[in-house]
TrEMBL record:
GO terms for molecular function: oxidoreductase activity, acting on the aldehyde or oxo group of donors, NAD or NADP as acceptor. Keywords: NAD, Oxidoreductase. The gene is ALDH2C4. Belongs to the aldehyde dehydrogenase family. The active site is at E181. The keyword Oxidoreductase applies. The keyword Disulfide bond does not apply. PANTHER family: ALDEHYDE DEHYDROGENASE-RELATED. Residues 1-404 form the Aldehyde dehydrogenase domain. This is Aldehyde dehydrogenase family 2 member C4. Pfam families: Aldedh.
């Protein structure tokens, strides 16, 4: 695994280019964030490989007992198209570290980085058959993986709708274990005491990073009434200053959406926003006559029952809403079927503590966003799925616990 990580470091530019070509990701983000993160994930999880152990148990009867941590077996991993290389390594590295064999099904839109990475794994010395990539469509290759009787575990990242289908396939086959990282409609709650300029920067990063194609995107932005008007004005100015274009251009801040289907879905939701009565503050149109480029879009006067406030759009569309009290902010933030992430911007530690404990989400970022780290568990609640990536918990889902018990006679202690 360490050699594997070294080879990824040696091929950063190639991998970043593949993800830019297929997913429209900014090349600079790939070279300086995504691909180096892949190598760090491998090294982090490799450090656990010789530390997988169970416990000695204190039995109440005349027995001695201990637990063994054993790999679940064959793991099927289905990854999405928005951060292809990063998703590959985040899911594969803990499964490799605990001793599982793996079949990865990359998204049909973005298979190239997976195929390149698995070739690096072979060069690193990972034995044939341990790490495999099968390309194909979800309804064929993905469905076959989920229903296969020799697959012991499925890890899926994608939409809630497909997550439901995977659970059905797992139940109808061999009751294989399932972990799901699904959709999100994450709230970013900004209080009156926040530095408005910093809050605007944070909010724009939370929704417009990776052209909004990110599961934890802060798509619902709640701003307290005391700074709301100033926030709206500065947010519009910042959105209009963004450069949308060629992801290989270092001056560009937003590349194209992944494909025509996603492009059309986002534009359709922008139309829904207008139809439902939200006010289009800025953006709202396609950019240029060629390619799948969309302007950074901000709606104000958004109500919680509008489609743009309820549904995951997975694009550069911000829904801005106003609130008065802490209680109202908590209620509005929790008014969603999702529970993946949340953000809080405040200088008041009491407010930060209260809100972070009240919002139902798998991760809460205070005065930051995208605060990912290898040591920090990540995963959702409610219809955002279950199961954790990162830290020790990220390994547990690829392990089974076996208890071994034997009698003990004439022991001086029990």
């Amino acid at each position: 695994m360490m050699k594997f990580a070294d080879l990824i470091d040696e091929n950063v530019e190639e991998l970043a280019k593949l993800d830019s070509l297929e997913a429209g990701k900014l090349l600079t983000n790939g070279m300086y964030i995504d691909i180096p993160t892949c190598a760090r994930m491998l090294r982090y999880n490799a450090g656990f490989a010789d530390k997988i152990h169970g416990e000695t148990l204190k039995m109440s009867r005349q027995f001695q007992a201990y637990t063994l941590k054993e790999p679940v077996g064959v793991v099927g991993i289905i990854i999405p198209w928005n951060v292809p290389a990063t998703m590959f390594c985040s899911k594969v590295s803990p499964a490799l570290a605990v001793g599982c064999t793996i079949v990865v099904k990359p998204a049909e839109q973005t298979p190239l980085s997976a195929l390149f990475i698995v070739q690096l794994a072979k060069m690193a010395g990972i034995p044939d058959g341990v790490l495999n990539v099968v390309t194909g469509f979800g309804h064929t290759a993905g469905a076959a993986l989920c229903s296969h009787m020799d697959v012991d575990k499925i890890s899926f990242t994608g939409s809630t709708e497909v997550g439901r289908q995977i659970m059905v396939a797992a139940a109808n086959s061999n009751l294989k274990a399932v972990s799901l990282e699904l959709g999100g409609k994450s709230p970013l709650i900004i209080f009156d005491d926040a530095d408005v300029d910093k809050a605007v920067d944070l909010a724009h990063m939370a929704i417009f990073y990776n052209k909004g194609e990110i599961c934890v995107a802060g798509s619902r932005v709640f701003v307290q009434e005391g700074i709301y008007d100033e926030f709206v004005r500065k947010s519009a100015e910042k959105a209009k200053s963004q450069i949308v274009g060629d992801p290989f251009d270092p001056l560009v801040s937003q590349g194209p959406q992944v494909d025509k289907n996603q492009f059309e879905k986002i534009l359709r939701y922008i139309d829904y926003g207008k139809e439902d009565g939200a006010t289009l503050l800025t953006g709202g149109k396609a950019c240029g006559e060629k390619g799948y480029y969309i302007e950074p879009t901000i709606f104000t006067d958004v109500k919680e029952d509008m489609r743009i406030a309820k549904d995951e759009i997975f694009g550069p569309v911000m829904s801005l809403m106003k609130f008065k009290t802490v209680e109202e902010a908590i209620e509005k933030a929790n008014n969603t079927r999702y529970g993946l992430a949340a953000g809080i911007v405040t200088k008041d530690i009491d407010v930060a503590n209260r809100v972070s404990r009240s919002v139902r989400a798998g991760v809460v970022w205070i005065n930051c966003y995208f605060g990912f780290d290898n040591d920090a568990p990540f995963g959702g609640v409610k219809m955002s799925g279950f199961g954790k990536d990162g830290g020790k918990q990220g390994l547990e889902k690829y392990l089974n616990t076996k208890t071994v018990v034997t009698p003990i006679y004439n022991s001086p202690w029990l």
